[in-house]
Amino acid sequence: MMSARRLPQPDAAAQAHSALLTAHIIQRMHAAGGRLPFSEFMQDILYAPGLGYYSAGWRKFGAEGDFITAPELSPLFSQCVARQCAQVLASLPADSRIILEFGAGTGRMAVDVLRKLARMETLPVAYWILELSGELQQRQRALFAEELPELLPRVRWLSQLPETGFSGVILGNEVLDAMPIERFHVTETQLERFYVAWDGTQFIWQTAGYDEPMLSAILSPLLPQLPVGYVSEYNALLAGWFRHLSCCLDKGLVLLIDYGFPRAEFYHPQRNEGTLMCHYRHYAHSDPLIMVGLQDVTAHVDFTAVAESAVDVGFSVAGYCDQANFLLSCGLMDLAQATPVEDTVNWTRQTQAVKRLLLPSEMGELFKVIALTRDWDAPLLGFRHDQQGRL
């Protein structure tokens, strides 16, 4: 992991953009009494309208951006996701099947999922994309127009969750890690919450006592093992997020893919600096207080909290496993062998992509997949090696 001091320097336009967001946050801090909880600071640096990392027009994905997601690595990833979607969609009337994807990035997964479903003759009647970034919406439309124009009429962009329920599949690839989180540390007598303030030249950390009943309940059996000074994160938004989802899905599947751990591993005593991470031009570091609006800021996912929040609002946990097992159960190797490879260069590229998707040292073990269902009882294709016992 690179030191923040050695990161590539942003150009003048990027620095000017960051200065605008900095001024916006400072104004918010003044209105709030001089500081903001880290969760609100993270909300602003990622999602402030027109200024935040995800809402502004900076290139984020791919070789020219800050990171590469699994759908960008290989269409095989999305084809496996499509196979899992097809199992659920096939049980529904053809005229009522809907897929809703959160934050579709470049649109690559949406295009590849729909292309595969078309070949399987299990197309949804509509594919909804909940995308708050106007720039990303344009990129997604352009990709559909270029690669899959015949299915573009099925795609609809949303700015908020639908108000009425539907049947089908909700997809979220690397969505949970981008939700604003609370950051805390353990002292000899209490938990303390991290705040961010402005000292006149830069953003700085501050702390104060943190009385959060839900977090206290989560940590109570673990605190005796956590050392003084232990730092970690807590997603206070999960419960509300799943309450909204529960109003949307009448029947079907919520499929969430992200990097993270079950709770015992997430709050392991040796993980004493937390999981907060920043990504800038494919460099990783741990300082979210610099280059505001120009870098991605994420935290790993507590999948036990995901499962608990979902069950509390009526979902069932139908499967949980690492990404490698999910993709293999969905037939990734068969798909790879059936994919024509014209030359050695493309064959090598596909082989390297498969390794990154599957190897424990790459994405295969760190990324997890969780299936949450409503009104669905059949075993799911992608969870032949279910690891729910780890939650």
The averaged pLDDT comes out at 93
CATH topology of the domain at 70-179 and 237-268 and 299-390: Rossmann fold
Provide the helix percentage.
Answer: 25-40%
The largest β sheet comes out as:
8 strands, mixed
What is the CA-based Rg, rounded? Answer: 21 Å
How do the helices and strands follow one another from N- to C-terminus?
A: HEHHHEHEHEEEEEHEHEHEEEEHEHHHE
Q: Which percent range describes the beta-strand content?
A: 15-25%
What is the CATH-assigned architecture of the domain at 70-179 and 237-268 and 299-390? 3-Layer(aba) Sandwich
Strand pairing plus helix content: what structural class?
A: alpha/beta
Q: In oligomeric terms, what are we looking at?
A: single chain
CATH class of the domain at 70-179 and 237-268 and 299-390: Alpha Beta
Q: How far is the first residue's CA from the last residue's CA?
A: 29 Å
How many beta-strand runs?
16
Weakly predicted, low-confidence segments: none
Keywords: Methyltransferase, Transferase
GO molecular function: protein-arginine omega-N symmetric methyltransferase activity
InterPro entries: NDUFAF7, NDUFAF7_sf, SAM-dependent_MTases_sf
Protein name: SAM-dependent methyltransferase
Would you give an account of this structure?
The chain has 391 residues and is of the alpha/beta class. It has a domain at 70-179 and 237-268 and 299-390: 3-Layer(aba) Sandwich (Rossmann fold). Helices cover 35% and strands 23% of the residues. It has 13 helices and 16 strands. It has helices at 12-31, 38-47, 70-73, 75-89, 108-119, 134-147, 213-219, 238-248, 263-266, 303-312, 323-329, 332-338, 344-358, and strands at residues 35-37, 97-102, 126-130, 155-158, 166-173, 182-186, 191-198, 203-209, 231-234, 249-261, 277-280, 283-285, 296-298, 301-302, 316-322, 367-374. The chain is globular and about 60 Å long. The chain starts with 11 loop residues before the first helix and ends in a 17-residue tail after the last strand.
